Amino acid sequence: MPPALARGWAAQAAAIEAAAAGGNDCSALRLANALRTQVVATEQKVPLRLRSPLVTGVNALAARITCTPPTVKKPPKPPKPPDKHGKHDHHGHGPGGDGNDQ
Amino acid sequence: MSATTRIAGRYEIVRPLGHGAMATVDLAQDVELDRPIALKRLAENLARDDELRRRFLREPRLAARLSHPNVVRVFDVGEDDGRPFIAMEYVDGETLADLVARRGRLPAAEAATLGVQMCAGLAAAHAAGLVHRDVKPQNLLLGTDGVLKLGDFGIAVGHEGTKLTLAGTVLGTAGYLAPEQARGEQVTAAADVYGVGAVLYELLAGETSRRGASLAEHGGENGFRPPDLAARAPDAPPELIAAIASCLALRPEDRPPSAAALARLLAPMASEADTLSLPADPARRATEILAPRVAPPSRRRTRRRLAAAVALVAAAAAGLAVAIVLTSGGGRSPGRTSGSRTVAPPAVGSNVADQARNLENWLRIHAQTSP
To answer: Chain A neighbours among B 287-326 (CB < 8 Å)?
Structure first.
C-alpha cells in the first residue's frame, strides 16, 4: 500500500481511537465516517488483495460507533392565554375529568 | 536530505513504529552501542504533567531490574527537552494479538509453547518481586526467532487503573483482569497466572474468555466464567484445557501455585518441549507475592489521578506494539502475508478504541506492502 496513504489513514485511525477513548463518540463517528469516505474514494490506489480487508475494517469501525447527541433542552413554553370558553370546551380523547389525575 | 533527530545525545530516530494519543514509539539507533532500540516518548503535550512524567518513568525503572530472555529489556530512561523517554529492546516480530488476528486459533502445542515462555518471563519477574498486572496478548511480543517476550512491565499498574476499569473507562484491559484485581482488592502474582490463562484461552479459542468490553458488561462472578473451552478448541488435549481452567479460577488460591508450576503443567504439551527452559521452583507461592498497594487517592486528587492513569494506560496501549517492526526493510514484517495468501481484515477490538487501534496498526503494517 502506498506508505503516505496508509500512514495518513493510520493517523486518522489514531485520532478515532483517541476520541473514542476520551468518550467523544460523536467525534469518533465523524472521524470514522470521514475515513471511510476517503478510503472508498481512493481504494483504487490500494493493492487488490488489501482492498477488501481494508474496506471491511473501516466499515466495521464506523458501524460500531454510536453517537448519542446531547439532548437539547427546549425553552420553556410561554404560559397559555386564558381559555375563553372554560374547561368544558375540551373535546379531545385525553383522560377524562372523572379520573384520579392526582 | 533531512536532518537526523538525536535524543539524549545518543538515540538517532530512524522511523516511527507506532503512535497513539499519549505516546510515540520510534525505532532508533543507539549510536554509542551501535544497536537498534525502540524509543517510547510521552506525548509532548502530556510531558508538562508532573504526575504523568513521574509515572511514565517509574515503572520502567522497576522493569529494568529484570534480565530474562522472555522479558523485553529496558535499557534506559530519561528526559530529552522536557519529554520523558524509555529506551527498550527492539523486537522484530508481532504481538500475540496480531498473531491471533492473523491466524485465528492456534494449535494446542504451539499455544502451550508460548504459555511456557510467558510463564518463564513472569517467573523471573515474580522472583524479583514484580507483578505485571497487565498480562494480555497486546503485551506479549513474539519475535521472528520464536522467542516470546513480555513487554511494558507495570506501565498500566496501580489501583487507579483498576478503578478506572471498574468504571468502564479502561475497556481494553478488562477482559484479562483477574476477578480480585477487578474488584480493587490486593493483587498478587496469582493475577498474572490468571492473565496467562486468559491469553492461552484466546490463543486456543481464537476469541477472548469473556464477552463484553468493560467489567460492567461482564457483570458479577458469572462474567468471569468463560465459555466452554473444550467446545471451542476440540482438538486441544484435556490436560491443557484443565490447566487453563485452573488459571481462570475465581479464587487466587485455586490457581496453579506459581508461574513456574504452570510452566511445568504446560511443558509436556508444548511443541518444543525439549528446547524450552523451565523456570526453577520459586520460594514463594504466587499468592504470597504482593503487588505494591497504592494509597487511595484523596477526593481532591482523584480526577487528576484518574486522568493520569487513563493517559498511561492509553500510552501503554499505544506502545504495546512498541518494539515490533512495522515498516519495510528486509526481514519479515509482522502481520504481513505474502504471495497470494488472504489478508485478514483488522481485528475486531473489545471496544471502539481497541478496534481503531487495530485498524491503525493494520494500516502501518501494510504501509509497505508492495502492490
So the answer is: 310, 314, 318
Pairs from A10-13 (Cβ < 8 Å, separation ≥ 24): A10/B359, A10/B360, A10/B361, A10/B363, A10/B364, A10/B367, A11/B360, A12/A38, A13/A61, A13/B356, A13/B357, A13/B359, A13/B360, A13/B363
Using CA atoms, how far apart are residues A13 and A16, in angstroms rounded to an integer?
A: 5
User: What architecture (CATH level 2) is domain B93-288?
Assistant: Orthogonal Bundle (1.10)
- What would the mean pLDDT of B41-58 be, rounded to a whole number? 81
Which helix (H) or strand (E) covers residue B17, if one does? strand B11-19
Closest Cβ–Cβ partner in A3, A10, A53 for B343: A53
pLDDT tens profile A13-31: 999 999 998 888 899 999 9
Pick the CATH number of B3-89 from 3.40.1350.10, 3.40.50.1110, 3.40.800.20, 3.30.200.20: 3.30.200.20
Instruction: Name the least confident of A71-80, B15-24, B139-148, B181-190.
Output: A71-80
pTM above 0.95, yes or no: no
Neighboring chain A residues of B310 at a CB cutoff of 8 Å: 21
Is the pLDDT higher at B286 or at B167? B286
B263, B119 in Cβ contact below 8 A?
A: yes
Q: Please judge whether A58 and B359 are an interchain contact, meaning their C-beta atoms are less than 8 angstroms apart.
A: yes
What HEC string does B317-333 produce?
A: HHHCCCCCCCCCCCCCC
pLDDT band at B295 (very low <50, low <70, confident <90, very high): very low
User: Between A40 and B102, where is the model more confident?
Assistant: B102
